[in-house]
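User: Some background: our group keeps a shared notebook of sequences we're curious about, and every so often someone picks one and asks for a predicted structure to add to the entry. Today it's my turn. The entry only has the sequence so far, pasted here. Could you supply the structure so I can complete it?
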Amino acid sequence: MYGCLCVLTLATGFASCSSDENEKVKPEVNTGYTWTTDGGLKACTGILFNNGKEDAAGREIGNGNDEFVFTGKQTLKKGTYMLKGWVYVADGAELTIEPGTVIKGDKASKAALIVERGGKLFAQGTASAPIVFTSAQAKGNRKPGDWGGIILCGKAQNNQKEMQIEGGPRTKHGGNDNTDNSGVLSYVRIEFAGYPFMKDKEINGLTLGSVGSGTKLDHIQVSYSNDDSYEWFGGMVNAKYLIAYHGWDDDFDTDNGYSGKVQFGLVVRDSKIADTSLSNGFESDNEAGGGAVSPYTKATFSNITFVGPKLDNQFQNTQNYITGGNMNPMNGAALGLFQSAMQIRRNSRLNCYNSVALGYPVGIILDNQKGDTQGAATKGDLHVNNVWFAGMDLTGVDDNKGKKDVLVTGYNEKSKPIYDESKKSFSSTWFVKQSGNKVLPNINDLGMQANGYMPTSGSALLTAAMFTNLDSFFTQVPYIGAFNVGDNWLNGWTNFDPNNTDY
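Assistant: Of course. Here's the predicted structure to add to the notebook entry:
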């Protein structure tokens, strides 16, 4: 059902309620849509339209308004749809999407799908029939930031109590229900999302605000996001099999007390795409000011493979080289440089195990400019164990934008780092002392195939895993990184050339 019947008119029978209060538009199909308002926005029990008119068989998601609130329960049958404007799935609403469905984000309306606290999105694809959210632009003309992206918000804890979601929507997230359920994203691709609505206010490919552990996330590929591929703000949601492909800014960004678990992740960078804020594999903060507030950001990742820009042997970490290539959207998103595989800062307690990173300017940054991340590392409040680096210019640096592996002893009154160049950085010294960590001079030392992420049969990564201190959520595999030989979980549902795909 698409909602309740509309109120009786003076004439006999039923009439559909129009999105225009002054003009009653007769739908092409009798929908039974019911219109109300929600926070000053027009809200409806139906989500499908045709040229802005109610149509239960329509192929447009949202009525075309800049912001539209869906309040019903509805299933999108397998097919191709156009998402228009910011479509909110409100508290109590449920949107289900059948496997094999393609949803194109409209560029003109900067479309985004936003699931609010208490709303649910059930996007359960399959390996042979994934659900695809992509650009509505023609084949060959798709760019990062063609549409907004997907936002899931829940009622789990963060360390700021209630927060406004990043990117501009009205939506708030946070509460005290760490087991909250926002639905399912499984066998889902998200392509060309992340429109920069204003400076430093971009929707990410997939944004997760205080999402609870009752939510299912697995087999998700975010490609060509115009900001972060994934960003978590608080919450306890777990995930397996995540891909960040050719993103603009950071790949896995964790903030504000995110404390979930993630296993099996792949990051692949385009050597010509990096953000003005400096791009990292991990970027992790406790909160923006580095405050010692709980719950701390203490997410745990295992079996992640980071393929950095240096896999391209022509790579130069300069603005002359990092131009965006044919993927520069020219939409106000500013290009910059690459930084590190892992930047852990601002009092974060991020944990990473059984992972491999190759080909970045810097391996790890433990940044103490705000908060005491290094103190947390020393006390064992954060862990980086059984992690291998290969082909890094520097194993570690202590400061954001740092270019030398030397010790930072503090910051002056202008917040500039003070160096002791007689000593190696805290970051590199600490990293090499941790159990199971290795630093290899060359990418080829890892025994990877040409793509940088699949190991060859002789790779030492295949037998190096350790799962001490990791709970039953983590599948105990023998290998470091995301893949075993002959066990390619990418098969069937992924797409590494979405710009040239017929949708």
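Suggested note for the entry: The radius of gyration is 23 Å. The chain has two domains: 1-93, 99-488.
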